[in-house]
Amino acid sequence: MTGIVEEFLALKEESDADVLAMQVGDFYEFFADDARLVADELDLKVSEKSSHGSSYPMAGVPLTELTPYLKSLVERGYTVAVAEQRGDDDTTREVTRTATPGTLLEATGADARYLVAVVRDGDTYGLAAVDVTTGTFRLTEVEDERRALAELGRFSPEEVLPGPTLRGDDDFCEAVREDTDATLSVHGTEAFAPGKATHEVRERFGEGALRAVGVESEGPGARAAGAALDYVAETGVGVLSSLTRLQPYRADDHVALDPTTRRNLELTATMRGEREGSLAATLDHTVTAMGARRLEAWLVRPLQRRAELERRHDCVAALADNALERDAVRETLDGAADLERLAARCTSGSADPSALKRVVDTLARLPDLRERVTSSPSLADSPLGDVLDRVDAEAAADLRETVDDALADEPGGETGIFARGYDDELDELAAEHDDLVAWFDTLAERVKAESDLSRVTVDRNKTDGYYLQVGHSQTDRVPESYREVKTLKNSKRYRTEELDAKERALFRVEEERAARERELFDELRAEVASHASLLQDAGRALAELDALACFAEHASANRWTRPELRDDRTLDVTAGRHPVVEQTVEFVPNDARFGEGRRFLVVTGPNMSGKSTYMRQTALIVLLAQAGSFVPADSAAVGLVDGVYTRVGALDELAQGRSTFMVEMQELSNILHSATEDSLVVLDEVGRGTASDDGISIAWAATEYLHNEVRAKTLFATHYHELTELAARLEGVQNVHVTAEERDGDVTFLRTVADGPADRSYGIHVADLAGVPDPVVSRSRDVLERLRADEAVDVRGGSGGGSEGSEQVVFDLGSGELRATGDGGGDDGEAGGNGGRERGGGSEAGDGSDALDPEAEAVLDELRGTDVNNSSPLDLLQRVNEWQKRLD
């Protein structure tokens, strides 16, 4: 081990990685602090090795088992350098790659793994997003920080490379960590320099690539792209050749979804951070990893392009209406390999023979899919065939035939990879190898026939090579030409000169055959890698078919309907349902209607009655329609939106020094700054995190601003019943409420949305349902009744009830003041506090005095005594007209 540790430490310093895995013979070893780290993280055993009089911790894994350990370390946020031996000896090593969270080629499953470089130039941000596992390279530019963060959030990157002007921006970097959980890595400033970055892009994608995608050659987008390419090349992943195209996209093509909205709508994870229960998990009936990635991408990046959405809806309709054809398509797709990732593995040189066999198997499905689509009249009339037409069918067939002809039916590891007849030299070596193996296989029988030995076997191990093993009872009969090599408890091992010669011949043939197979396989893998673009095209086509069939499967099973896409600001949903909640409970459908004079809905109703679910389902129906899916409703006319913004609940973020109310106000601020008249806004309980008078004021002002200035379609749930007054004063505001029925003190939430405001919120009933102790619930009802009757409420002290002479408090509904009365209360005056109770709830609006005037009281008495059920509509209208005149 002399010098090994010193070499390890030198390579570690050179790599600048968190951890170094260094090849030593048949193992990757970790030394010193790295050994302790991997032992703690991966539960490896630590031993001690000495070097130059010092002892160092050491841990290792076999060469063939590095991948899972590497993946585990990188997914924990570490960068891991890998040093390989060069040549047959173990004296020369060099770092061949560095795996980082954004460049981990060994990723598995359906999740994409993006590395995103971000450059700021003035108010413009350039973003280059690379997934090295699939060869995806996307580029865009946006005009402000808010939109840049939103785009970052869409990709959920594993790693972000901030440009030089962003590294010192603590607010931006903190927002990136908070919104994406990404690792922020510092890359060399020179990589972001305009000249070098532009050169990198032109070298990779061609001289006119930037101009073709509408990006200035030295702008922030080009600089981000060049830095990302440089970083991928520097880490040594070796997949630059799989980055075959620069895919531009305009952020304006997609519906704006900020991180808060994605979290609140639980698109890919629930509020608890779990995938189960999210929209993506509920809809995911895909049968390939490629399809699952495409499905999630569509959900987090809904489109504004109507033509493309109509095309997706046409495909979903064709598949949804034809169950047999849909099942056949899904059956053909089932088990298809992840061609996008296999292309990257081929270009990086990490694909093994079984990976190439999976390429053959998957390419063989393309003709079957094309036949299923074109042979069915209903599918042939849809755009499904256009999806497959993006793949060069002839080139795909040629590549499949080339690889299939080369590989054995079940290709082995180092040998047995190729079919007989593929290479003459390899066939000769294989034949010679088979003859030698046959000689050894029949040696024992020949020995028995040619000698007196009846208990003899032939075997092989790493220490002794091939040997003849004879039991002790017959060793006296062993011919003199046998050479003893080892004595065991019950037998002895022997070799002969002929056996030595045959073994040398076999080892030579095995070595030559393995070398030839490696040479041929490298050539075959390179041939497949040269068709990376073809494999990516095929992978994307299969992914799209899988995602479309998934939408159709879910639509058919759950009675979803095709939305009518509109270019105006209409949103008209009949019997809409929540796509996730309907899977677990018997769901009550509800309408959602927006149009002229109805673009701001104030939603009131009891706690726990379904207001939040109603608002979220409306937003999800819009997003599903613009993802290309059918929607959970009897019918839906959807005017395309440019963004969906939500504020639904909030949690304290004390670590960042932000209370619930601060988070709420920051989310509200983002909405008021970002939303447009083409957006959909969902607000839940704005202003509830502070004093009632402050909260009502903020909610009132926000409503006016959204109505008058932003003019977005808005759903605003509130318990501030004062806001319902705005419906009579603002042209576009309408009241809706979630209904409830009360009988003999029992409340039933009907979960039906109807026009008009709610009369109260039944908060005490919800407290009772939640298990609040009976004395508290009972006392709450008593206090509420007294408040509604404008009666004094006694303040109970100690463990008993209110005694004679105890202080009483009167809440003036008109002024919002508390006044103390009674023997213990002293003079009338303000007792402090702001009331903080729910507004409305059937109470009369006061003018600051203790009682209503006699005429108003008389009107109320008549109103209370009116039998509505036994009065004609005309009679009721006449009475209301008379009461209004008397009140005026």
TrEMBL record:
The keyword Metal-binding does not apply. GO terms for biological process: mismatch repair. Keywords: ATP-binding, Coiled coil, DNA damage, DNA repair, DNA-binding, Nucleotide-binding. GO terms for molecular function: ATP binding; ATP-dependent DNA damage sensor activity; mismatched DNA binding. InterPro entries: DNA_mismatch_repair_MutS, DNA_mismatch_repair_MutS-lik_N, DNA_mismatch_repair_MutS/MSH, DNA_mismatch_repair_MutS_C, DNA_mismatch_repair_MutS_clamp, DNA_mismatch_repair_MutS_core, DNA_mismatch_repair_MutS_N, DNA_mismatch_repair_MutS_sf. Residues 850-860 have a biased composition (Acidic residues). Residues 679-695 form the DNA mismatch repair proteins mutS family domain. CDD domains: ABC_MutS1. Residues 499-527 form a coiled coil. Residues 816-872 are annotated as: Disordered. This protein is involved in the repair of mismatches in DNA. Belongs to the DNA mismatch repair MutS family. This is DNA mismatch repair protein MutS. The lineage of its organism: Archaea, Methanobacteriati, Methanobacteriota, Stenosarchaea group, Halobacteria.
